[in-house]
Each structure stands twice: as structure tokens, then as C-alpha cells.
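call fold(seq) -> C-alpha cells
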Amino acid sequence: MSVVNIQGIGMTSQRTRDRLIERLRAKGIKDENVLEVMRNTPRHIFMDEALASRAYEDTALPIGSGQTISQPYIVARMTEVLLAGEKRLGKVLEIGTGSAYQTAILAQLADQVFSIERIQHFIPRAKKILAMLELRNVNLKHYDGYKGWASFAPYDAIIVTAAPDEVPPELLHQLAEGARLVIPSGEQGQQQLLCITREGDDFIRQNLDMVSFVPLVKGTRL
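ret:
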């Protein structure tokens, strides 16, 4: 992929990205670090060329295998909640690499990102795009997201980009003291975005927004 393709032209240009950022700000995103990272991250390279002209619409778009690249507002909202006013995070676990767009945003706001993807064929493309953007602080794994990544726990933050019916207990126990888990949860049509903070052996839940995510599925596939 050429430098021109990364920078974008026409409907994928920097000017188009700037307009998206103004829409996100108008919708209530306040964290300037999040907004600046999203302004500088070319969302169009994370999807098929046929959809690139729609990359800076504030909407989720298909990436194949029944999965989507999340709506920019949702990416911004979840990242803002995860940061909770901090400029940078330490060690972050992401469940659901998918297109790697959310991964790339996190990689610019955290020291280390550990990202799990259950669909194996997404991983080579994710690695290629992250390398192209020179984001070298990401570790990817083909694994069951319900189990987390225990060998690198505890995490300073965990983000989940698909919705289980119930919050997986393994993820809760991989949180560091005072760390936050941001996760959609519930049946389709009744999903809530949650922020769960660990306080010792207690997990304090805060309901944020009604959302719509693809389901978090157990196991792995090619």
C-alpha cells in the first residue's frame, strides 16, 4: 500500500477525517488525546477498498465473516471511558482484534496492547496494517476471548469489542486493582455498554449507553 493510499485522497483525505472528528466532538467526545489519535489514524486502510469512500462516515461497516469495523463514535466513546482522563495507559487487553482499527487507536494511547482474535484469517492482515503504521507495541493471539490472556495479566484496562450475554468472569479476574473493563453485554437489542472497575475483590459496575454489537462467541475458527 502506497503512502498516497495511507494518507488518503478525496473521500479518504485528511479533510474528511477532520470533519469526522468535529462530528465526534459534537456528539460529546471530550478527550482531546482520543480525538487527536483518531484524527491521525487512516480508518480507510482497515477495510476493503470498495468501502473506503465510506470510511469516515460515523457508522459500522462490514469486514467479512459476519464481523464489522466499529462505528467511530463507539471507538471514541469506549476508548475515552477506558482512559478515564489519563493521558496514557500501561498494559491493555483487547478482546476482538477484527479489522485492528480499535487496536491501532489503543496502541497509540498505551504502552502495550495484547489483542485476542478468535477468527484466525483476520490476524495476518491486522499484523500487516499495524506494521505499516509502525505500531510495534501490539501482541496478537488467535484464541478464545472468553478466556482472556492470563499469562500477561493483570491488565491496567480491558476492552471488549463484541457482546457476551454475561460478562466473562475470567476477564474480571485479569484486571489489576483499580483497573477498568469496558464491555458491551446483553442479548441483541438489549445490550448495555458497561464500565466495570475492580476494587479489591469487588467489581463496581456502571451502565453507560445502549449499544449494538456482534455477539462474543466462544471458541476459535479459521
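The radius of gyration is 16 Å.
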